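Hello,

Our lab assistant flagged a job as stuck in the queue for most of the afternoon. It eventually completed. Since we weren't sure the result was trustworthy after the delay, we are filing this so someone can double-check. Below is the sequence as submitted and the structure that was eventually returned. Let us know if re-running is recommended.
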Amino acid sequence: MTGWLTGRRNGLGGAALLAAALFVVAVPRSSAAEPEAKPAVAEAKALDKQAREAFEAKRFEEAARAWAAGAELLPRGATKYNEAFAWQKAGQIADAADAYEAALELGVPDDLEKPSSERLAKLKGELGYLVVTGPEGGRISIAHAKDRPVPAKIHLPIGHHTATLVADDGRSAQVEVDSAAGVSTILKTPPELAPITPDPVPQPMPIPPEEEPGGGWMTPVGWTFVGLAGAATGATIALGVLTLNTVDDYDAGGNTDDDLRRKALTLRTTTNVMIGVSSALAVGGVLLLLLAPSEPDDTESEEASLDLSIAPTGGSITVRW
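-- returned structure --
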């Protein structure tokens, strides 16, 4: 059977055929190669050596990846052929078919053209084929093919796959692809890509209004209530004294003066009402003062004061804050 590393051609063993193919890859086409190409040639030679050692140790996938990296540096048909055969030995037939096709497109030595074509034809009967067309600059990732440039031709294992398309401006979309043996699928144009959404502009945080020093409205209103409570208390005391005097006059008259009696009852009722009013004002004022925010430490403020004077004939009150 004719094959690479597995049979003989014109008296050459597989190992000799491999060495011949690798020699084509490693040596520049012209002795007048540009100086800047020498580092790539040296690296490609190192990768070639690494690949041959891995292949001889039956680490076929490692060998295939090394040859693939070498072909990225120096694209040669013979290198892609070596990569394809290593992928096939590793059981990765989709990768192998892609590499065989790339080898034929780049051009292989005459003794490798027939086996490359035969192996590729056999693999195509076992795989699906995806042809992606579209403007250059895009990338596609599907199955084993990662970040392939568009346009692209990719052999796919049979079954359902999800392809990710990325445009050159970063927009992306996903496409579902069903692959069947020996069937070609053409993705003529990429689907409508989602527009790039700019990051939202952060909105400035609103500055909360500063609280007025000294507790705002609660402090002055509280002290006003306290002052009114004091005034109401003074009036209540005065009414109480007047009520008692009227009752005394009514008793001194033998409890027979109806006018004094009505006056005493009216004064007593008014006194009781004033007691309730003064109590409510006092309680409300104290609560407002307790609930009011305290003044800042660095704010100088005069202390509020309440002056109250009461006499049997009346009273006076002075509030300061």
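-- support follow-up --
The delay was a queue issue, not a problem with the job. The result is valid. Helices lie at 14-26, 38-56, 60-73, 77-90, 93-106, 110-124, 218-252, 258-291. Residues 232 and 309 are 12 Å apart (CA to CA).
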